[in-house]
Each structure stands twice: as C-alpha cells, then as structure tokens.
Amino acid sequence: QVQLVESGGGLVQAGGSLRLSCAASGRTFSSYAMGWFRQAPGKEREFVARISRSGGIRYYADAVRGRLTISRDDAKNTVYLQMSSLKPEDTAIYYCAATSAYSSSDRTDYNYWGQGTQVTVSS
Q1: Could you give the CA distance from residue 98 to residue 109 in angstroms, rounded to a whole number?
Q2: Which residues, listed in sequence order, are joined to residue 47 by a DSSP beta bridge?
Q3: CA neighbours within 13 Å on the CB side: how many for 82?
Q4: Which DSSP letter does residue 53 get?
Q5: Which of 13, 31, 40, 103 gets the highest tally of CB atoms within 10 A of its CB?
C-alpha cells in the first residue's frame, strides 16, 4: 500500500503557472504507475495526465496537452504536475493516484488516492 499527499494548489490568475506535488510513502514508489485527475463542481472526476513506472511513457488529456507536464522523481518519492497557461476552466480539485497495474487513464484502475488540492484560476 501507499499513502499520497498532494500540495501546491492555490489561487492564480489566468495565464499563470503552478506546480503540484504528490508525495508518496508506505512502499516502493517506483513499483507504481501514477496519474493526476481533477474534479470541478457538478462534474465527474476526469483524467488529466499519467506516467508509467519507469517514467518513459507519459500521456495527457486533450484539454491540457501542451500546457501541463507530468514527471516523477523516484529518489524523492514524488510525482509532479507542472501547469502553465492556466485557464479558468482548469479550476478544480486535483487528485494524485497510484496503481500497481500498468499506467491507465481510467480512474477505476487506480488503487490509491490522495485527498486532493484545490486549484482556482481567476479570469
């Protein structure tokens, strides 16, 4: 099992940048593929980005591709989500997730979740 804690959320203006962090503990971090999801008020939790166990495979939702970058640092047991050119529609609670299976864009494939961090983008 693994415990996940997100941080780095906050209030930013449209066009600004923000970096989210997800610190993992409890077991071997490198054995998990990681993903970022987000949920806005009145909407379902949606896929944002994912990264394989090795870090060699990365994939993004169409809405964020080119603006957001996922990365991982196994030495620090941390996965990051670098966000730039933020838009008001990016406003949501962002969740970090881990899976012992292969990297996936389906939230049902993830075994562990953090409690989320709020990102608010003002216009």
Answers
A1: 9
A2: 37
A3: 5
A4: S
A5: 103
pLDDT of 56 reads 92
What is d(CA 59, CA 106) in angstroms, rounded to the nearest whole number? 12
Report residue 69 as tokens. 């970058």
> Who contacts 51 (Cβ-Cβ below 8 Å, separation ≥6)?
33, 34, 35, 57, 58, 70, 71, 72, 79, 103
Whole-angstrom distance, CA of residue 69 vs CA of residue 51: 10
Q: What is residue 43's DSSP assignment?
A: S
What's the pLDDT at 53? Answer: 92
pLDDT value of residue 30: 87
Low-confidence ranges of the chain (pLDDT < 70): none
The pLDDT of residue 9 is: 98
